């Protein structure tokens, strides 16, 4: 009988997300010392450059100041980040009264 391993689950998840249209990037490639670094430290789990690009794409009419505020709140508002980010991204407008 074969065992279900972490590697098998990871491979399954990667293939599933690729079928949904997501790109797979090997973590060491975007590490601080990788070929295409997207973070400055290993403990940075959020790729803020990608977040900023997504916020600009989703909210093209918002001013740069509001996009920066939205990014800051999505990444650092510990009281209700999901509610804010969900409204910010789906309604395409900042929601400051959370």
Describe the 3D structure.
The protein is an all-alpha fold. It has two domains: 1-42, no CATH class; 46-98, no CATH class. The chain contains five helices and no strands. It has helices at 6-19, 27-30, 48-58, 64-76, 81-90. α3 (48-58) packs across α4 (64-76) and α4 runs antiparallel to α5. The longest helix has 14 residues, at 6-19.
Brief description of this entry?
The protein has 98 residues and is an all-alpha fold. The chain has five helices and no strands.
Order of helices and strands: HHHHH
Number of E strands:
0
- Indicate how many domains the architecture comprises: 2
Number of helices: 5
What does the secondary structure layout of this molecule look like, with pairings?
Blueprint: H1 6-19, H2 27-30, H3 48-58, H4 64-76, H5 81-90
Question: Which keywords apply here?
Answer:
2 domains
């Amino acid at each position: 009988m074969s065992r279900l391993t972490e590697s098998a689950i990871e491979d399954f998840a990667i293939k599933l997300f690729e079928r949904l249209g997501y790109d797979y990037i090997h973590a060491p490639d975007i590490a601080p010392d990788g070929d295409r670094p997207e973070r400055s430290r290993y403990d940075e789990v959020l790729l803020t450059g990608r977040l900023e690009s997504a916020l600009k794409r989703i909210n093209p009419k918002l001013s740069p100041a509001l996009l920066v505020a939205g990014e800051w709140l999505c990444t650092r508002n510990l009281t209700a980040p999901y509610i804010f980010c969900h409204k910010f991204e789906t309604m395409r407008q900042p929601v400051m009264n959370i």
